[in-house]
Amino acid sequence: MGFFRGFFAPFRGGLYVLRHPLKRYLFIPIVLGMALAIATMIAARNYWSQELASVTSGSPVLGNFFLGIMTIVGGVVLFLIAQPLLLAVFSDQLSERVERDILGKAHTVPLLTSTGRALLHGLMKLVLYGIALVVGLGLTAVTGGLGSLIGIALGGLSLAYDGFDYPLARRGASFGAKWAFLARHPALTLGYGIGATVLYLIPLAVFVASPFAAVGATLAYIDIEKSAAKAAVPVPEKTANVAANS
After folding, report:
1. Is 11 a residue whose pLDDT tops 90?
2. What is the pTM for the complete model shown?
3. DSSP 3-state assignment of 123?
């Protein structure tokens, strides 16, 4: 159940946004996402055109082919790393709005505390992303397909952290506590990572994938919170006795 809840969470988040008066929150993220896509592709092409200069000059056809492939791969990787950071403020506002609509209130953390913690966690997350990227590329070069699968798995795990970061951060969770939450819900984390990856692969959906996934993670977290609250409610003595006698 946890796997499917996680897998469908990003899509559930998208449907929730589209069915409620929240579509205005998507305008700026879409514009910024398009600008980011152009910028990352230009940056990737400039970098690889220098790295592959000897190849393109010696064999223009083969060199331009590799240049095109590496530009797309590099641009996509940069986009996937930068987009959640660029849209973090907008995704957080949308996540908070959804939480307030459902619960009647949203958990909050003092501004200075939340800002400082977000910057610190963002920096630590970038370090982990860098390590994951290097490991993924290294394993791909050594093992081929296995390394690619590991790289995809690390990317999915990063997407899961990004999504659940919003509701957890509003509850004051530390960096370690956020990862501990994912570890306590492995099926949910795995499903969410795969679902978010699939969402990013849908043409044009990539520009709204980050806010959709944030809302989906928020809805899934609220479900877990409600389930935990129900489980913690003590059974009335009279009801317990009737259940025991039956």
Report:
1. yes
2. 0.77
3. helix
